[in-house]
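Complex record, two chains
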Amino acid sequence: MEVQVDGGKLPQKLAKRVSSPAKNAPVATRVFSTVIPVHGGKKGVATTLYASGYVLTTSKAGATLLFSINGQNTVTSFGPNADKSFVHPLYFKAPSADEIRMTVFLLAERDGQDPAAYLNVFAIDTDAAQAKKRVAGK
Amino acid sequence: MTSKIKVAFAAFSILTAAGTGAALSADGITFGDKPSFQSDSKFSYALSQD
């Protein structure tokens, strides 16, 4: 999933990837939610989920990633002049969990007509074995 | 055996929501083989083991 505000300054190869660019908009948002059943989580779940993505911002532009798991949230803000891939971790711990309710919220914004911002998240991963080890080690 | 899940976004251009069959066990913690809810169908969900 991805979000963009663009005054025409983004590289063309990125601009072409955006299915619904928010041209001329100062702010653009996108949200995605999913629920994944968890079996055997009655004794607790503790794991880290990783959101992998990419951010590109010009001057006077920024982007924000909000990652929520069962009400536990992290917010990451990317400032101006960013151009990097990232793997953003969210440590999730609950005494009992029957499901993982996951929401990803992306925001891109700019100050003025020329700046541009692009943010995407292309994958979210976690590892059940890691979860088990962390519960056992608590 | 470990079990991993991946929710992969494909720039909202690929319509897939396929699991890999039965859920994979990982010493007690097991993820379902498919999401019970999703706000958008344009992503893929997969379990893997290694």
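Note: The helical segments of chain A are 12-15, 128-136.
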